[in-house]
Amino acid sequence: MRWYWLLIVCCLLTACHRQQQPSQQLLKPHTDCLVKTTPVKNQGSSNLCWVYAMLATIESDRLMEGDSVNLSPQYIGRKYLEELADRYYLTNGKEEINMRGMSSMFFHLLHRHGITHYDAFHRDDANFRVLIRKVQQMAQTAHAQRKGLTSFRNDVSTLLDEELHGSPRFVFMLGAEYTTLEFAHSLYHEDEYEALTSFTHHPFGSSFVLETPDNHMHDEFLNVPLDTLMNRIDKSLRSGHAVCWEGDISEPKFSFAKGVAKLENEQQPITQEVRQKYFEQQQTTDDHCMEIIGMAHTDKGSRYYICKNSWGTKNPFGGWMYLSENYLRAKTIAVWMKKH
Hints:
Layout: H1 2-24, E1 30-34, H2 49-64, H3 73-90, H4 103-113, H5 128-144, H6 149-163, E2 170-173, E3 176-179, H7 180-187, E4 193-197, E5 207-209, E6 220-223, H8 226-238, E7 243-247, E8 254-255, E9 260-261, H9 272-280, E10 288-297, E11 303-308, E12 320-324, H10 325-331, E13 332-338
Parallel strand pairs: 4-6, 9-12
Antiparallel strand pairs: 1-10, 2-3, 4-13, 5-6, 7-10, 7-13, 8-9, 10-11, 11-12
Helix pairs in contact: 2-4, 3-5, 3-6, 4-7, 5-6
């Protein structure tokens, strides 16, 4: 029987060794530069990553200037849902309620509605997918009963007051009172940020309306060569300013659980032509937005970009992710950064 117990002990030791392997495979990068940033948030079931990423970028830029602000993505989400509800009602459901978007859309909403603090307008249990269904049902009922737009708007406002928060009119900060618009204007000035992309189906040096499904407001992006785009990202980060990133996260080696995103073939050079092919063949799509907050490298010399995600903190880097340089070159749809 001794051989039997010896076999069991060997199996147990092997099992323990295998359990340790994943931790040995974790990326251990060395930070080259890192901008200041606010705590990682969780967008929950919403499609508002484009709001979370742009607000995070603005928060980092304010920290760079000595201000400390923590802003409410759900407030912008409520205002956008109210606008979409109007369209859904007036088109009798033909224009669907879709809360996906690009971060450039955030600025339109900021100019129309302002912004408030995170603590003043946030609920952990908010579920925008459920809210969308409820708003659609209300619109159908309002149409059937011929209640009219004003009555429908009141019903939507009551629902959102109950499920989220009442829509604030004022923001209080350091003993001063602001309207939500005044507060927004104190944080951001028109044309302070620029939107960049890099594709060859439009001439470099010109701006064009980027043909992605989430560009609902038909915003224009300045088209620059890929190397210029990467240099502009590096320059922004090294000067202490974050970058709002939108790109593809459908790659097999994009793993929030590991906190790392790589291409399947990291050895393949990502040229302008390779990048364009991915985009035209729908292998690069506008899936997600994050804030780029820094750069890092490994002992083997591989370069990574540090991103603050909006999926909570439950990964090895507390909610941050490391995107390889090749991943960024291949899978970036667009970026937004402070003008220099």
